[in-house]
Structure formats: C-alpha cells, structure tokens
Amino acid sequence: MHEYLEEFIHFAVTLIKVLLVSLFGGIKALLPMGVLPRKSVNGQVCLITGAGSGLGRLMAIEFAKQGCTLVLWDVNEKGNEETKSLLGKSGVKVFTYTLDLSKVSEINSTAEKVKKEVDYCASKHGAVGFHESLSAELRKLNASGVKTTLVCPYYINTGMFDGVETKSPTVLPILEPEYVVECITEAVLTNKEEVQIPRFLYLTTAFSAILPTEAKMILADYFGVLETMDHFVGRKGIKA
Length: 240
What we know:
Elements: H1 2-30, E1 45-49, H2 54-65, E2 69-74, H3 77-86, E3 94-98, H4 104-117, H5 128-140, E4 150-153, H6 177-189, E5 194-197, H7 200-210, H8 213-223
Parallel strand pairs: 1-2, 2-3, 4-5
C-alpha cells in the first residue's frame, strides 16, 4: 500500500510539473516580441548556412548588430562574399566558407577549417526529431550552458519558395523574411526552445498530437495545405 501511495504521489508531482511547464511555455510563446529579457551574444560565434542570400543574409546582418563573430557558409561564393562586404562596417569578425551542404565530406572538411581559423564554433541545425534528440542528450550531459532553438517557419517570401500559394493568408500568410528574422532573433536571445511562425502553427502542432489522421487531413484540406506547392517553381524557375 505504501509503495502504491509513493507511486501515486510521484505521478501527481510529475503531472503538476508537466502542466506548469506547459502553461509557462504557452504563455512564453504567445507573449509579444520585446517583452522577455534578452541575453547578450556579443562576442559569441554564430554559424549561418545559406548566408549568401535571402534569409541567411538577413540573419547575418541581424547577428552582426548583436556583436557576434560570424561564420558564413554557402555554396554561392560570390553571394557569400557580397554578404561579407555588406557587413564590412559592422566591426565584427566575418569568416566565409564555400561548400555544398548536401555533401557530408565538404561539411566535415569545412568544420575542421573553422576549428583552426575561428576560436570556437557550434552549429545547431536539423529537423524537429534531431532537435528533440539533441535536447535530450544535452540534458543527460547536464550541459545547461548550451542552448538550442528550433525554428519552424511557414513559407517565406524568398526565391526559394517562388510560386507557392496560400489558401488562408489570414492565418497562414506567406512570411516576409524581415519578420522571420525578427522572430528568430527574439527566440534565440530569449532562450526559447522552439518558435513556430506564424503563431497559428502552435495550434496545428497541438492538434496534430491528439487528432486522428483523418481529422488532420480534413483540416489540411480546409486550409489548402496540400495544394500550396501546386505552382511552385523555386529559385531555378522549374515548376514542381
């Protein structure tokens, strides 16, 4: 009887913790930008992939304002150097590297170069599953000083998504890159574990965890999610 009571108390305490953390996380996600205190990343190293254009270039400009040492990766050497030139008056150190991120060998060799040429570098990039695994590993290692932020934006108004359309522009608009950069910067500087843009996506994530597949497909049809790529052409101008 005593063992059952202890187990019940342990479960109750765990449930309360889950509810409180979920409540705090929900409030934190819904707060307007600028409310939460921001951490300083001045002097820290920021590695940005795809820095030669679009969102990557805007991120480089924003984190230069924050005083970061920038490590810029892109397959487009000319575009990457143009980004570096734009940052010339910022006063921060900028290192550029040309590589194809689809080739593991190039990633590994470039990472070795970065280790030799830059004081310290840590890149946190990956899909949702990878981020969850990484967070678990860091918790296991008690690496509380290493923070990760998972960014899940909707389609962005850059060449990468040319031709993409949205059936519901009110709740699922095509995002302007400047707004996405603002949201990412806010999330990183306030140590948010995850940011979904626009915020409506938080609801879809929550419902996705509890709704049956058929119900999710009905909602996908309603919002036109399955037709968004029908006229996609992308940067190469080739229709999908």
